[in-house]
Amino acid sequence: MIQINNKYFIKAEDDQFTVCEKYINKNDEVCYKALTYHPSFTSALEKVMRLEQVNKLNEKDMTLFEALEILKNINENYREMLKTYIEIYECL
């Protein structure tokens, strides 16, 4: 699986990419729950980004300006992450 952040992972399979959420079960074991299935890695990564956006926006009540700042920061973080991955890939 590909770790995107501490909570979300993407599992590459033969015909799809599965977005998984990491959680700790009642026996204190690390488990992964399949959330969504996608035809491409890009689509799966976009889903993780949207999940992060939803989680952040639902943490508390906020103004539109605050919400837009949060969305901007998340988008910039993912853009920077992808830029880094692309640079590393091009070096291989």
Summarize the structure.
The chain has 92 residues and is of the alpha+beta class.
Structure description:
The protein has two helices and four strands. It has 92 residues and is an alpha+beta fold. A four-stranded antiparallel sheet has the order 1-2-3-4. Helix 1 runs antiparallel to helix 2.
**Separation, N- and C-terminal Cα atoms:** 20 Å
The number of helices is: 2
Mean pLDDT: 92
Structural class: alpha+beta
* Cα gyration radius (Å): 15 Å
**Beta fraction of the residues?**
25-35%
Low-confidence stretches: none
Quantity of strands, as a count: 4
Largest sheet: 4 strands, antiparallel
Helical residue percent? 40-55%
Order of helices and strands: EEEEHH
Q: Using the alpha-carbon principal axes, give the shape.
A: globular
Neighbour order of strands in the largest sheet: 1-2-3-4
Short key terms for the protein model shown above:
49% helix; 4 strands; globular; four-stranded antiparallel sheet; 92 residues; 2 helices; alpha+beta
Question: How do the strands and helices of this protein lay out in sequence?
Answer:
Elements: E1 2-3, E2 8-12, E3 17-24, E4 30-38, H1 41-57, H2 64-91
Antiparallel strand pairs: 1-2, 2-3, 3-4
Helix pairs in contact: 1-2
